[in-house]
Amino acid sequence: MGALVIQLTPAFVFGALYALRARTLRAQGRPVEGWRVACWWSGLAIIVAVLASPLATLADERFSAHMAEHLLLADVAALLLVLGLTGPLLAPLLRNPLLGPLRHLSHPVPALVLWALDLAVWHLPGPHEAAIRHEAVHALQHILFIGLGLNMWMALLGPLPKPAWFGNLARLGYVVSVRLYGTVLANVFVWAERPIYDVYEGGTTDQVVAGSIMMVEGSILTLGLGCWLFLRAARHGEERQELLELAEARGVALDERRAARAVAAGRGEELRRRILEGSA
Fold it and tell me: Which sign does the torsion angle of CA 195, 198, 202, 206 carry?
């Protein structure tokens, strides 16, 4: 019970902070979009439901259940939480002298490396079995899975500024790297001739099911993100061209690189307003 409280406390704390900040922004006339709010609360709901449901108990007995639990937490819930964030929501944290510098961890390179190392370490027999045998270690495992999973998705989908080189092609490479890494790990479980962990029931068959769950979930996410990147590239190209044509019609100097940066940062409407005002 103590470990469950430790794991659920961050969900309730961050939920309360999100609600307060969203209310402040709404009072300032800058409300958070409804779909983002829905994503945030859906992510928190998944975390609470997974940790407080019978799946958590079954996860101590079956590796397949444990795999499903971790994928829901580190992939699905973390992804939804990131989709619920905006720059104005994060502004107080980014201004904090202690927390602000942590934003550099969401750069695509350290974000991917930290996520991959965390996944690798916790699937080694020693740390993995320790998490099953000791509640405190299991709580730490879940917190790191969620936190570093959130950071990994933040590098791809979050509202923080991205490096200039991290365009659509680089983002696709990022998604492929994440899924390829997960696929390699999943294949280890599928093709192992004996159970890797001694703490579960079900033996090799259950281990194969766990690896298969990992591959199927990864394939679905990859397909969804691939479609998103395709649509994003098409939408950004169209918006960039509209800005360039508007600037030309208004006699405002605007080069293609500046228009592309504004669109990629989600500031197309701001640039459009400046063009109309003649102050771009």
Answer: negative
Question: What is d(CA 120, CA 139) in angstroms, rounded to the nearest whole number?
Answer: 17
In this structure, what token pair is assigned to residue 277? 């005002």
Predicted TM-score (pTM) above 0.85: yes
Cα–Cα distance, 55 to 80 (Å, whole number): 20
Closest Cα partner for 76 from 181, 12, 153, 185?
153
- Three-point CA angle 68, 114, 181, nearest 5°: 55
Q: Enumerate the domain spans of the chain.
A: 247-277
Give the pLDDT confidence of 80-132 residue by residue, as tens digits: 999 999 888 998 988 888 888 888 999 999 999 999 999 999 999 999 999 99
Give the pLDDT confidence of 43-55 residue by residue, as tens digits. Answer: 999 999 999 888 8
CB 40 within 8 A of CB 159: no
